[in-house]
Each structure stands twice: as structure tokens, then as C-alpha cells.
Amino acid sequence: MIPHKQNDGRIIDPARELGCIGKYDVLVVGGGMAGTGAAVSAARLGCKTMLIERETSLGGLATIGLVNIPLDFSCGIGKEMLSRLDQVSGHWHRNSDPEKHKLILDRMTKEAGVDLLLHSYAVDSIVSGGEIKGVVVESKSGRQAVLADRVVDSSGDGDAAFFAGCEYKSGRPSDGMNQACSLEFRLGGVDWDLYLESDLKKNDPRWIKLIEKAVADGAMPYMIENHLNWVTHLPGRPQHCKMDELSLCFAHSRNCRPLDARDLTRMYLEGREQADILWRFIKKRVPGFENCYLIDTATLLGVRESRRITGEYVMQAKDIAQWRRFDDVITMSGHGYDLHNPDGPGNIKWAEMEIDGKQCYAICHTGYGSSWLPPGGLDALTDGFGRKGKDMKFPDLPCYDIPYRCLVPLKIDNLLVAGRCLSADFMAQSGCRLVLACMNMGQAAGTAAALSLRARVAPRKLDRITLQNQLLRDGMELGQKQRRIPGLDTNK
Amino acid sequence: MKVIYSVERGCTHCGTCIYECPAGAIRITSGGAVIDRAKCTGCGRCMANCASEAIKKTVTDNINGKEQ
Questions:
Q1: Cα A164 versus chain centre, distance
Q2: Mean per-residue pLDDT, A464-484
């Protein structure tokens, strides 16, 4: 109880002693894909591990956010997860069943021996002498502390790192605006086969012309988004009987402030209104969707970007366009710039940068189909080395490395970050934030936490070769098949 | 008889097939992913991992790749 002081109107939270849930080797904050990867890997390496999650199930956006499209490199724990989903018909075509996905993650954490605590918000960090010592959680059980020798912040928003006083950046450099947020929704009663064979799927697969027309003739009251971002086909449901279920990324909230509860509220309400508009428009205009109905909207808003915790290295936009490799690679990503426009429809798949003294608009690969074009249009685009038009060259295996240093925040020791709050600039983060990229970063962070404990060094000082060799033993791909990584056991 | 995988229209350039292909037979062009039939071993991992169901399997009995 907090006494209300009548006189000056201020409300003071008095100092109080907190109960302690326990002391752990590794505490993982946030049970999305990154957190699950971190907790499972740390626990498998013998650490007493706690995973706290504010929602009621694991998986975060990949499950309750209905982003059931686990893209990017499948390796390590991510690959194991996909094959377990395969066994229960919960995965096909890189589309997963969110419900089965939750259950698989529950089982994987349980089997690894992770102590899981759901429905618990991290509300503060416990710091002493430049080291994080634990986190304060708020739940139905009240406010309690969890102590740990290593903390992995996979909260998405970088909450634990923020509370610990880490430096961070948020939003685009010019005005701090964050990427657009999306509330995904599911449709049922779809004739998927008819849609796949339709002219629309063949000629306008991202519905660009369809949407243009709908806005012009009023079937869509305003331009919610100028293209369909993705549609997934839920596995293990009725199929080939005109009763397919799909999940769509279509709704978009712009001008968002995902660290503000008021604006989050606004976006949830707006997302549900948009889903209502969109599914009615889809039912009217898209072949195969004539009898479709809205199953649900996601219970978790798809926030693409908020705090990016400044680490030992900050991934640069140029690193992606130049497909840069790092000696301290802990995972790879193949996803180029994918910036959902903060203040208008469309995605931006190019980045403005200086290459050899020239101002360039670089793209990562030729897949910029639905992007807004820079001033000068198509002709202005270059590859990461400033080459234009037919001279543009892209590697056969277009992927770049995420270095370990991006998971190690400056200043605060014993803390690692994983997932979309990694240390990266605005454009670089727009690429390396996909479902499996986050899980891979999580596995690396959990492994680093465990190995640094074993070696009795701060994660910052952990020998990267020890870490990489362990990751390779655990099935991760670091690009060792394509190139020589100095010092590793399994160089080819 | 040879199994041939080809990318139909609808490719979203996500690149997943490239990473999944054990033969290094796929690359992205401005028109989407393209599978090199000479390198393709017919394992089908591209089709199984294509999130937009843009990859089609055809069975042919002649090496020119004519559909049966």
C-alpha cells in the first residue's frame, strides 16, 4: 500500500524489502524466440536457468503475435524446433502452427530443465559496481527479485539493459521515429488452391495493383498498406477442402511509439479496426477468399524495432549491403533491409550511405520489389560497393554475419542482449530481426552466458573461439562451410 | 525420369530457398529466385521451405525439361 499524501499531491513509492524468487546461474528476460533459444542453450550447458516471460506462453511474436513464418537460417536449436514441429504436422513451407509451436517451446524448455516463470514483467534491474546482479519482476505474486550471475536480455525492447543504465538508440537517426508496427490476423474458410492458381497470385502476388484500385474506388477507405507483406498457410489444418486457414501481415500502425503504453493501446485498437476493414476487403476482392471469415487478431502487437542496446560493436547498414563477414560471427542472416516505413505506407529496402566518397542508395539484393524507391528511382540504386545497373554484383549465398560483440552491451558486465534489441543501427536492425535470426542470437547469448560462467570471465572477455566451437558442436551454422574462420576446429 | 523444381511467379525474394539448397543451385535475380537445373539434385528442400509456395515440382522424362 502506498499512502496518498494529501498535501503536495505527489505519490511516493516507499523503499521496501523484496522477496527473492531465487538465485540462478543464468536469468533470461523475455521468452520470445531469442529468450527461448538462450534459456534452452544455457540450461543444456548445465546452468541453473530461469526464463521470465510477461505473456502467458513462449514464442512471443512467432506464436501469440501470429508471425508464424520462421524465416532466416535454420540451424541449432531453431532447426531442432522446426523438425519437432514437422513431427506434429506443425510446420510446412516455413509456416508454423502457432498453437503447436507454443507447446513445442514449452516442452523444449521443460526438457532442458529451465525454470519458467510466466505472467511476470521485468520492471527493474539490480546493478552493483558495473555488473548486473538480477532483475525485479512484478506479477500476481507481487514484486520480487531474481538474482543471477548472468542476465540475457531478450525482452525485445531491451528492458533489462535499459533499467541497468545501458546506452541505447531507438528509431531512425533523423527524428527517432520507430518502424511501423503490425497486428497480424488470421482468416479461415479460404479456398487456398483456388487462390494459388488465380491470376492475382501469379501476376500481382503482393496485391499492389489490387490495393491501389481498392483505395481509388473506396473498397479500402484509406491506404493501410500498399502491399501484402506476407500471407502464411497454417499447417495441419483442413486443406484442399476450401477451409484453409491463413495468417496475414497486412495491418500497419504508423508514427508509433512502442515504448509508450498509451500509444501501444492506440495501436492495438487501430490494428483491430484495420483487420476488420482488411478482411472485408479481402473477402470481396481476392479469389478464393469469397467465404472467408476473421478467426482472430494477434494478442501481441508486432513491434519491429524499439531500443537497440549499444554494444561493443554496432552493426552498420553498410555491413549488410556489403555482406560483411566477422571473425567473431555467432550467427548469420540472409535478410536484407526490410524497413516498414515509420510514417507512410510501404517498405524501404535500400539505405542511404557514402561509398567511396559518393552518396549512394544501396540495396542488399535484387529483391526490392515492393519498396519505395529513393530520389532518382531505380537508376539511383547501387549495390553495397556503389556499382549500378547491370554492374551490380551480389554473392551467390547472400548472407552476412552477426558478430558476438553486437550481443555485449557497453559498460554493464554480465549482461548479454539477443533478439531485435541487438546492437545495430536503424537500417541494419531492419534486416536481422527475423524469427530464426532472433532464436540463433538467443542460442549464442545463452551459450556465451554459460561458457563465461564456466571460464569465470565476464562475457565481454569470453574467448570467441571457445564460444564458436561450442556453437558448432550444438549445430549452429557460422558460415564455416563457405569460408575459413580463423582459429576454429572445423575449418574446411 | 527427372524431378524438376522451378520457381513460379509469386516469389517474394526472401532467399530462404538459397540457404536451404545443399547444392548451391539457387540464386536471386530481379525476377525472383532461379534454380539452376544443371546443379539441382532434386532434393526438394527449396519447395518444402518456400514460405510463399512459389516453387513447383514437375516430373519429366526428357532432359530438356519438358513437362510430362
A1: 22
A2: 94
Q: Which of B14, B24, B48 has the CB atom closest to A71's CB atom?
A: B14
Going by their DSSP bridges, the two strands A19-29 and A49-52 should be labelled as: parallel
pLDDT confidence of residue A458: 97
Alpha-carbon distance A392 to A271, whole Å?
39
Check if the beta carbon of residue B35 is closer than 8 Å to that of residue B5: yes
SS3 call for A311: strand
| Contact status, residue A476 vs residue A320, Cβ threshold 8 Å | no
Q: Which residues of A172-186 are buried (b: 16+ CB within 10 A; e: fewer)?
A: beeeebbbbbbbbbb
Pairing, β A293-297 against β A185-190: antiparallel
Phi–psi pair at A352, nearest 5 degrees = -80, 130
ipTM computed for the complex: 0.77
**Which of A6-10, A123-127, A207-211, A325-329 has the lowest average pLDDT?**
A6-10
Q: Where, residue-wise, is CATH 3.50.50.60 in chain A?
A: 19-171+401-473
Torsion angles phi and psi, residue B49, rounded to 5: -110, 5
Q: What is the dihedral of CA A308, A341, A432, A80, to 10 degrees?
A: 110
Domain ranges of chain B: 2-60
Residues whose CB is less than 8 angstroms from the CB of residue A421 and which lie 6 or more positions away in sequence, other chains included: A153, A154, A155, A156, A157, A158, A161, A168, A306, A307, A308, A309
Instruction: Assign domain B2-60 to its CATH architecture.
Output: 2-Layer Sandwich (3.30)
How far is residue A471 CA from its own chain's centroid? Answer: 21
| Furthest CA-CA distance within chain B | 31
In three-state secondary structure terms, A284 is helix
Position B67 confidence tier, pLDDT thresholds 50, 70, 90: very low
Which of A93, A334, A397 lies nearest to residue B49, judging by beta carbons? A93
- Global pTM reads 0.94
B57: part of which helix (H) or strand (E)? Answer: strand B55-60
Separation in Å, CA A442 to CA A16, A38, A122 = 34, 4, 18
- Number of C-beta neighbours around residue B4 at 10 A: 17
Cβ contacts (< 8 Å) between B56 and chain A: which residues? Answer: none
Q: CA–CA separation, A80 vs A213, rounded Å?
A: 44
Minimum-distance CB partner of A202 among B10, B50, B53: B10
Among A213, A228, A171, which Cα is nearest to A342's?
A: A171
Beta bridge partners of A132: A127
> Which whole-number Å values give the CA distances from A277 to A226, A250, A251, A281, A361, in the listed order?
14, 11, 9, 6, 35
Tell me the CATH number for domain A19-171+401-473.
Answer: 3.50.50.60
Task: Assess contact for A67 and A249: CB atoms under 8 A.
Answer: yes
| CA–CA min distance A468, chain B (Å) | 20
- Distance between CA atoms of A198 and A239, rounded to whole angstroms? 17
Residues of B with CB under 8 A from a CB of A: 8-16, 18-20, 24, 27-30, 32, 47-54
Q: Which three cell numbers stand for residue A275?
A: 483487420
